[in-house]
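Lay summary

Proteins are chains of building blocks that fold into shapes. Our project writes down both the chain and a compact code for its shape. Here are two examples, one after the other.
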Amino acid sequence: MKLKPTVRPGYYLPLVLTFAALVLLVSSSIITLAYTNFRVVSSQSRSNSALNIAEAGINYYLWHLSHNATDYCDGNVPCTGPGPFGPYLKQYRDTSGNVVGTYSITITPPPANGTSATVSSIGSTTSGERRTVVATLGVPSFAQYSFLTNSQTWFGNSENTVGLVHSNNGIRFDGTASGVVSSAVLNYTPRGCFGGTGGVRDGIWGAGGPPSYWNFPVPPVNFNQLTSDLGALQTAAQTNGLFLPTLSDNNGNKTHSGYILQLNADNTVLVGRVIGRQDNGSLGGSCANHRRTTSLIQSISWENNPRAFPANGVIFVADNTWVSGTLSGRITIASGRLPDTAQTNTNIFIQNDILYTIKDGSAALGLISQSDMIVNSDSEDDLEINGYLLSQKGKVFRPHYSNNVKQRITLYGGIGTYSWWTWSWVDGSNAVVSGYQTTTQIYDDYLALNPPPLFPKTGAHAILSWKEEPIL
């Protein structure tokens, strides 16, 4: 006999309730997650909008400075003192003309003899979201480049570069770069002394890299503008700086070889007049025109007392110039004779250390020569140069002196040269036969944002640095 199972009322109810509870729990979790994600996305969207508005404030003041380079008060007067100035509140509208927020900008002018302003922009949405951006605005200068040349150049496999490297010509690069390497040419035929073998090469080529850092062609850097820059520096020195005229008699005949400047750590400079003699150095090498260089000193007629660094930080010497010493401040020393003629172009000579008391950006030296920047044959065996070396129409180099090998040269700063540069000369076996056996260059990256006073510029106002800061 078969029996039919008996199902009691309510038998499936617990299962149904359990299933319903699970469905409700999962649905609630999905809804909660979706809502949370919606809130996060909405909050992130509002936060991004606030950041965009803050950046709009920076871009607005970049535009403002491009039209009025010395107005740090957004057109408001009076505008005197070190600042900061502001805050100045402005509405921000979308593409339809609707107000979607505001930005509040505060401007801090450049420090004394500085060139870069700091702009803080707080962007706020209509819903109350806020973000802050702080940017450094200024005109990029020649000092933004760790190496800059108008010539072909060749970086060997033992050379490492830090910071921006640029040539208006081609580059053979066998070293290691940690920053952008750029050339103004698409291709070129490198000369033998710059690593060429007779064929056409890309604007940048070689066994080094990484090639992802190579950028060519890019616009060239205009060295010709340095003529007007030297004129501006001469005017600045005559107005509120230190101007040293050409050493000549009433008939225009040279009475001395030039000036010597001894920089002191208390921000004074001792000035002397130099009697020099003809040196036996030559440029050497297949890429150079051989000629003599006037550099060695016979005697010096020193002034009795040192002079204080000028208020605007500019010294202009209308003659050849020797520089050495120690400094804790910021100074630009330019050597040139105007109007500019090739027969009267001047050089800067270095034979002893030029040192900063501290390498934290508070000390900066710019040396600008109308022609060559020369390290003498009687230079120190272990020579250190702190500063940016810029040659308008010549080279930055140590000439080839026979039987004159030194131990080490260290440059903390940068090099800009119309032609090539070198501290060492080698034979066919790559052995140093003249100059320094060990060469070290360390780029002073403080110069990128805060170059020496009135240092020549290379373009228009730009954002030199950018960072976000928390809302306090």
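And here is the second example, written the same way.
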Amino acid sequence: MKRTIRILGPVVASLLLMASMCIAQSGQRYILRANPSNQADICSAYGLVVVDQGGTSQVVITTGPSSEESDQLVAEVRADPRVQGFELEQGAAVVEAATNNVQTVSAGALSSALNNLAAVSFYGNPAWNAYVSQPALAQVDMPPYAKQPLGSGTVVAVIDTGVDPTHPALRGVLLPGYDFTRDQPGGSELSDVDQSTVAVLGQSTVAVLNQSTVAVLGGYAVVQLNQSTVAVLGQSTVAVLNGNPLPAEFGHGTMVAGLVHLIAPGAQIMPLKAFSANGTARLGDVVRAIYYAVNNGANVINMSFSQDQISSEMLQAINYADRHGVICVASVGNNASMMAVYPASMGNVTGVGSVSASGTLSTFSNYGPDLLTLVAPGEGLITTYPGAQWAAVWGTSFSSALVSGNMAVGVARLNKNNNNPADFADTDDAMASIASVNAYNAVTGWGVLDVQNMSKFNHNGLHFHTH
């Protein structure tokens, strides 16, 4: 979830799953859990039509009859002894579209990054110096870069809007992934824009970054794109995009992936596209993505989204991940609220809030004992953006990404030292073990992410540490 500013390309938002309407509409979707041998008979009995699989053989996604209210249909189907679960499929929306807490961030916040234009090599891939030397790295106690990149041998699944597979800083670590919005292999968010728009995006970076070049940005313009986004774009790009704007939430997944990569450059990233560039998604696609991540080798799942109503099927999917030793990390949301949101509030999920550069809770971050596990920087982070571009971002989506990267660091360390896979119990035990030194509180949880502590990780668990 997130509030953002864009630099050298538009930036996007964080994701909030929202409840659907109670009255059944034509094509209203439901998630049915039942023994596969009973599914056809159940669907026939209640007028359900299967439209997709649900990530496991026991789950299918169906439409229901428009002549019946959703609540009534759900009650009837659930009463059938053959049915293990049946729920209305919730819709999805980007958090900025659903909250009144979003505020425009001044373009002046970009000044320090714009004064740092050098290009560097980041483990063999070109990157902007402002990305690899940003202040947040010192705040999370990032250790010096080593020959063997942190997180090597692990996989982090990013359930989001997709990731740009052509970004120079990311393409060496990206797995093919899957696009659940189109039911096809590949998790590219470039599929949500046409080729002419992709070409326009590339125009705003004058120099192609490599080990020996410096990006000469030349003339650029600061453009207000929406209530929470400022873009710094080349003048020619601005002229074109003014007549052909990008989808409002385009780029979110690439930005999240960039921050995972920053903390765990040795980890592979699995892009799972469950959200479209307009910020919408279906819960069924999110659930399918969780199962896909577990079944295809993910060690960590980053979920930079939330919903305000608990879903039985999402809980089942996350429990499945937990049983298979996959660590789930979720953003807590940007509503400055203590309300429970899911999946961050689930007991086997690490819920991550945002702090400022001074270590205080961000004014937009949610918090509370039933929601927050720990916090990480979430203001003014520099990260990747589609079109070989870069962005500065604000929000708990990006705090979550830093923690997901750090989880991969811990998993790699545990696997190396103990030849025994890590799981959520390891992280939970480790966070509980610091309570005697730094007691948990409802505002910052177990404290601020500490990567250096994770890099010293041993069999006692994945460690977090308050400053």
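What can we say about the second shape? The first strand starts at residue 3 and ends at 5.
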